Automatic annotation (TrEMBL):
Motif (Q motif): 10-38
Segments of this protein annotated with the region Disordered: 343-365
Pfam families, per the entry: DEAD, Helicase_C
Domain Helicase C-terminal: 242-365
Gene responsible for this protein: rhlE_2
Cellular component terms (Gene Ontology): cytosol
Helicase ATP-binding domain boundaries: 41-216
Name listed for the protein in its UniProt record: ATP-dependent RNA helicase RhlE
Keyword set, alphabetical order: ATP-binding, Helicase, Hydrolase, Nucleotide-binding
DEAD-box RNA helicase Q domain residues: 10-38
Length: 365
């Protein structure tokens, strides 16, 4: 049944977490759980299935990574070749990498093996890791099914299954792949389902996946927009670039993430910004995976001032300290707008939105 986020939990020490996880949290300076962590970790430690409705940047990855690591430690399984115990599905390679990083952070004092499985890179290392045996596999659906058909992975030992960003999975056309994967999973398993929005197709998918589940609703899809003060400044299409330059020079106090509609538009905008001596690069599906990883890492390390991205390429990117998120091109739909402005962490900084005919500056209350 639906539950709102718990307000009774004010410290991670209120959970019955094992010492290695407590030490990892303390080492990272994490003491107070976010709302979704406060509401989800307890039921997950009890072995309940969970449906979580939460935006990017709410701490949902830790909400499932922490209890999964504790469950793994309790199981004390020796990983078998090609048979992971935990399977996490994400829509993009970037998000899969971030999820794996979270497991490594919170599980730094726990002995476990993990691999990421996604396309755009050679299968060699992924296949070798699976053959050696892993506890956790974080994957995108396409590459996972490729390896499954090749006999490089089996799902017989799956104890916990996580489907992250389900709405984006469906938007990207992964439903047939998801159905095939779900058909192969053991019936007796622990299932976790996360989505930023809950349209009917997502609800239907969740209903077929979960049993006796707890529902945690932390941030309804519209609430991110509701908490933003929006200032509209009209501008001619031909003047968008000029206005963008003005904003970057006068308002941006930190790093900036800019969205464009197309890959060509992203590259074209980068060329214009570089001419103004701005440290700027683009990330989109037309670049190789290694190039995208390099650019994203440079942005996270502060070596770039501006990252220009398309929607799919930016999915799962969470960077603390963003000064603005700028929609240089209009998103296709309201949901994409919500996802775009949710790129920052739990306490977002000011954001901006220039469109074809207007510039909208958004500030989080």
């Amino acid at each position: 049944m639906p539950n709102s986020a718990s307000t009774a939990i004010e410290s991670f020490f209120q959970f019955d977490l094992i010492d290695p996880i407590q030490r990892a949290l303390h080492g990272e300076g994490y003491h107070r759980p976010t709302p979704i962590q406060a509401a989800a970790i307890g039921p997950l430690l009890e072995g309940r299935d969970l449906l979580g409705c939460a935006q990017t940047g709410t701490g949902k990855t830790a909400a499932f990574a922490i209890p999964i690591l504790q469950r793994l430690d309790a199981l004390q399984r020796r990983p078998r070749s090609k048979a992971p115990t935990v399977l996490v599905l994400s829509p993009t390679r970037e998000l899969a990498t971030q999820i794996a990083d979270s497991f490594s952070t919170y599980g730094k004092h726990i002995k476990f093996r993990m691999t990421t499985v996604f396309g755009g890179v050679s299968q060699g290392r992924q296949v070798h890791a699976l053959q050696r045996g892993v506890d956790i596999c974080v994957a995108t659906p396409g590459r996972l099914l490729d390896l499954f058909r090749q006999g490089c992975i089996c799902f017989d030992d799956i104890d916990t299954f996580v489907l992250d960003e389900a709405d984006r999975m469906l938007d990207m056309g992964f439903l047939p792949d998801l159905k095939r994967i779900l058909h192969e999973l053991p019936e007796q398993r622990h299932s976790l389902f996360f989505s930023a929005t809950m349209p009917p197709p997502v609800k239907k998918l969740a209903a077929g996946l979960l049993t006796d589940h707890v529902e945690v609703i932390v941030t309804p899809p519209s609430s991110t927009v509701d908490r933003i003060d929006q200032c509209l400044m009209m501008v001619q299409h031909a003047d968008k670039l000029k206005l963008l330059h003005h904003m970057l020079q006068t308002e941006a106090t930190g790093q900036v993430l800019i969205f464009t509609k197309t890959k060509r538009g992203a590259d074209r905008l980068v060329k214009q910004l570089v001419k103004s001596d701005l440290r700027c690069e683009a990330i989109h599906g037309g670049k190789t995976q290694s190039a995208r990883n390099r650019v994203l890492q440079a942005f996270k390390q502060g070596k770039l001032d501006i990252l220009v991205a398309t929607d799919l390429a930016a999915r799962g990117i969470d960077v603390e300290g963003l000064s603005h998120v700028i929609n240089f091109d209009m998103p296709h739909d309201p949901e994409s707008y919500v996802h775009r402005i949710g790129r920052t962490g739990p306490e977002p900084a000011p954001r901006a939105w220039p469109s074809r005919s207007a510039l909208r500056k958004n500030t989080m209350r």
